[in-house]
Fold this sequence. Notes:
Family: In the C-terminal section; belongs to the NAD synthetase family.
Pfam families: CN_hydrolase (PF00795), NAD_synthase (PF02540)
Pathway: Cofactor biosynthesis; NAD(+) biosynthesis; NAD(+) from deamido-NAD(+) (L-Gln route): step 1/1
Protein name: Glutamine-dependent NAD(+) synthetase
CATH class of the largest domain: Alpha Beta
CATH topology of the largest domain: Nitrilase/N-carbamoyl-D-aminoacid amidohydrolase
CATH architecture of the largest domain: 4-Layer Sandwich
CATH superfamily of the largest domain: Carbon-nitrogen hydrolase
Number of strands: 20
Number of helices: 24
Enzyme class: ligase
Amino acid sequence: MNNSKRKPTNITYSSSSSLVTVATCNLNQWALDFTGNADRVYQSCIRAKDAGATYRLGPELELCGYGCEDHFLESDTFEHCWESLADLLFNRGVSDGMLCDFGMPVLHGGARYNCRVLCYDRKVLLIRPKTAMADNGNYRESRYFTAYRSGSGSGETYLLPEIMRNSDLKQRTAPFGVMYVQTHDGTTVGCESCEELWTPKSSHIDMALNGVDIVGNGSGSHHELRKLHTRLDLVRSATRKCGGVYLYANQRGCDGGRLYYDGCSMIVCNGVVLAQAPQFDVEDVHVITATIDLDDVRSYRASIPSFGIQAAESYCEDNGGPKRCVSCEDNVMLGRTITKDGVLPHPCDLMEGGLELRIHKPEEECCLGPACWLWDFLRRSGAAGFFLPLSGGADSSAVATIVGAMCVIVTSAAQKDPNGDVAKECRRVCRKDSDDNDDGPLWVPSTPQEMADLVLHTTFMGTENSSEATDSRARRLGKAIGSYHLSIKIDPIVTAILGVFQMATGQVPRFSSRGGTISEDLALQNIQARLRMVVAYLFAQLLPWVRGRKGFLLVLGSANVDEGLRGYMTKYDCSSADLNPIGAISKLDLKKMLHWAAETYGHNVLDEIAGAPPTAELRPIERDGENGGEAEHTQTDEEDMGMTYTELGFYGRLRKISRCGPVSMFRKLSVTWSHLTLREVADKVKRFFYYYSVNRHKMCTVTPAYHAEAYSPDDNRFDLRQFLYNTRWTRQFAVIDSIVEASEQEEDSSN
């Protein structure tokens, strides 16, 4: 052969073919707000494109909102999602030149699936159903969806609905199954949905072994105290062992229920965090991007011998893997990464170690999470503000502080962009939206206190049993936050109610300190508490009218999780309200939050409130006989409850998180509380379970509360238990007693 006659081959080298810019986002979606949800999805796609992204990931079920619950049983929900997708693809062109990964429900083969829908250039490339349902805690996904089980692994064919088939592309079907997409330039993209990341055999492991470069996890994960670090560790470990690019998207905000989805979307490569979105924020859309050199992924994987062995085995077991790969047409390419300004961004340097993760302290979480949750409720409910019975104690002061923090966050965002969505919502809520039609400067609150004066109404509802100290604390806190504050006496109402009772029965009840029975004493305490609830709703309806404003106020409750667990509250008192931002937060965490807020916001009175002994102030005050002055109130919460807040924390975590009944709780605490005798531990455990069970009925009417603590006793959906108990716990307490007696006999014999 004459090699001298062979013509040279022209080879074109590309210096950036392995570069890809990816985007993920926090979206503040609202269940069943299909139009608003589609608008927010559209904004996220536009921002991703502007940043040069060729792949965009969205949260779980973003088109309808994650919290639709039993509305997922309605065919309308599925139909409206397809309408939204068709609008986004065909009318708004969000997938033109960008691979978009949307979250939505899909009905296929008579079953409902929670799906990822991957689209490019107005075409559906793949519908990927979720394989593991979240069914613990607040989640009930198997009630609405079926976990997908692939047979041969080659996927199925899905007939697209008519609204998709009528497009100019005339696409009739799309692949359906646990597969991944391979673009024309060789980039492979796979999907993982929320719970699949938390399972022992996560989907991303198999995808990594099959050479998938990018994995997107669209999630609907809610906030819970001290939970974020676990989620972050899972996301980082997803690529630390296997290599690859991992994108995490999440909802952020209240989508209509007790949960607050806390965002914190991330982009991770080879275990290094490249971008992180905020956890607590009032912006509806937050997009983060990163430019990555996929050669770094391939090099990282190839450098791990054990990974290579398992990848080769997986490839052989899957017969080369093509049946799970959806190969795309020539036009589908992700290796183009130029911004709208024509700039070629530099890839992230993995050697620098990535970002330092931002994880809030629990006391910050207690304040900022409920603050953002309340803002979503306020602006979406149409209310003109909040009404809070402010007693000057730790619980109601914590609620006031949370609303004050809300005003700080919203005011800051409105001042940064007076034309932005947050500023517009702020003007509407504060009834200043007429300024939007004026030619002058747009109104935004100059200080958080100015906003608080318009949206937060606080009232100290004192009786003859209330102290000057708590009245003073309430007044000073209201001034510091900026609330519209009143101080009133409700004794005339109490007297009137007792007068009716006296006329009907001829009897006058007395406090136990004045010769009355326990029943009389409790009745006199409860009537004060319940009347405060009645007065609260009266003021909530009429205070806007008094101030010459329109609308109504949402009443805020202030019972903490420990009081709910013990039942230390009056049914239909001030714990009964429209919303309770602290209903799943412990007393100890609330006190830490008050100290943090005192330092952060400069409200020094909060330190004083946190240091005061918790008291209901429903019994008569003991007066200082020598000086004729007023002593500190002798009625304290812990004395009334017969247990401390620290002990309640132990009981709550063991009962719910550790799944303990009376006997197993006793066994654990007999080790933990080694400073007590077994009989003392037994008495404490039995006392708790008695009061817990006898008061459980109160959880059936508990005010909707922000979910924060993993041991919340909320009966609505999180802590599903009976409310009629055998409060004697006959078998359980008998076993505890037998253990104690056997131990005491053994100790006596050894002596």
